[in-house]
Request: fold
Amino acid sequence: MNKQERIKLILQYFEELFPHAGCELIYQKDYELVIAVMLSAQTTDESVNRVTEKLFFDYPTLVALDAAPLSEIENAIRTIGLFRNKAKNIKGITKKLLENFSGVVPADKNQLMTLPGVGNKSANVIRAEIFHIPEIPVDTHVHRVSKRLNLVKMDDDVFVTEKKLRGLIPKDLYIKSHHQFIHFGRYFCKARAPQCTQCHLRSICKEPNKNL
Ligand code: SF4
Reply:
């Protein structure tokens, strides 16, 4: 089976398993998503949602976040990892959005990546989610699943993986399928305990006996 046949099979299976996969970070305003995405580095969306609910309620505007003392922001997010650094990033993001972008989240990738804590993957998430620009953000789940399903080499880095997936997945499916890759990695093909015995992709998987 070649790669095109493999990706077709994979996307069909993901559609069966996760037809409604989407972003699991909760936000109302564009800048709230930027902050939530930054906070989600090395932690779960669930733990981010737990802190942002109160954070965005207590500081309901960019101006309110900008005016809040750093120590208050640290307190508001202290249950998540790297909270000190992330609190500084919140302050940096709000200041930069207000001062450089008139309070509006830019769609341009290079401009997004000037925001503290926003790298290539986060910029892709923001562009896909807010602006519906076809992007394939490669997080830990997308990367692991792509390797296991032999879409990329085991030693490919995230940038190579992103490039290869862009070449394999139809452009109009970039956004949806990236959510499905994440859901598959998060809930089914987990890092330590994948559900291999129930998986319909065993025949094309490089690590089909992980939990046997
Ligand atoms: S067989 Fe197991 S490791 Fe392979 S894709 Fe399926 S769940 Fe993941």
